[in-house]
Design a protein that fits this description.
ten-stranded mixed beta sheet, about 45% helix, about 20% strand, globular
Length: about 280
């Protein structure tokens, strides 16, 4: 891990995500790039402010980000760059990841609310869109290493070679033990064996070779409940998931399990996009 981009709106949850990312950067000898997608406040945009006043607002926002960058650099002894600009966050993050050849984007999460449950937020929107790993840090999470990683895997994850390569890289860098979790609704024992074989979760599955890992099957509950149970039982430091893509109509009917867990998880969640090659 060489470069970590932290997307921040200078809020409390974003500042906590920055603290987590800085500690991770120090642990992995990575560089931090702080990115703030600046938006003119509505009260300013709706008034006839002269251009000079708008420029002052932009300059003030940039100064705040530069102060945070300097403070982070001094506190954690890691290289830090910062970028503050008027931009649309999704497209700009896509560009920055390519420009900096970034390994990871880190974002904060306030916690689950009714609005988030219904409509999502910036972080869940990025998870759904991104073709790069996104680490979502809950507001109360503190970096204490990543010695235990829980990989919540569905029936397709084992065949996604890029996803597994990234998981193996992170586990190796953090010297972590990985538990592969598979959640199913209540099934007969014979059916469960069949599901395991189809999902590639048999202990002799070659997909996870070279990875210090164990397997755990949970049945008889919902996917979300099963993952939360798995986190608690394994005492995981990090949850890894692969977001599922839906069409427009499907997205209105089905909320991504990854986005749902990002909103309610008590441990950081790493979303790794599905990739076959």
């Amino acid at each position: 891990m060489k470069t970590i981009i932290v997307a921040t709106d200078l809020s409390k949850d974003a500042n906590n995500a920055l603290e987590y990312a800085a500690a991770l950067a120090r642990c992995t000898n990575a560089k931090l790039v702080l990115y703030n997608s600046f938006v003119i406040p509505p009260h300013a945009a709706n008034t006839l402010l002269p251009a000079s006043e708008i420029e002052k607002i932009i300059a003030s926002n940039k100064a705040s980000l530069e102060y945070i960058a300097l403070k982070t650099k001094c506190t954690y002894d890691v290289p830090v760059e910062c970028i503050s600009k008027l931009s649309e966050i999704q497209s700009e993050l896509d560009r920055l990841v390519v420009e900096y050849d970034a390994d990871l984007v880190v974002m904060g999460m306030r916690g689950e609310t009714l609005d988030q449950r219904l409509f999502g937020n910036t972080t869940t929107s990025i998870i759904h869109h991104a073709k790069y790993p996104v680490l979502v840090v809950p507001i109360d999470a503190k970096f204490k290493g990543m010695s235990k990683i829980l990989f919540a895997c569905d029936d397709n994850c084992h065949s996604a070679s890029k996803t597994l390569v990234k998981l193996k890289e992170i586990a190796a860098e953090m010297s972590a033990e990985v538990q592969v979790l598979h959640v199913q609704k209540l099934l007969k024992k014979a059916d469960l064996v069949l599901v395991e074989e189809l999902a590639g979760l048999h202990p002799h599955d070659e997909s996870f070779s070279g990875l210090n890992h164990t397997y755990r099957d949970i049945d008889g509950c919902s996917i979300i409940e099963g993952i939360e149970k798995g986190i608690k039982e394994f005492n995981a430091d990090l949850l890894v998931m692969v977001p599922q893509k839906h069409g427009l109509w499907d997205s209105l009917l089905h909320r991504s399990k990854t986005c749902a867990m990002a909103s309610r998880s008590k441990v950081p969640l790493l979303s790794i996009p599905f990739g076959k090659n």
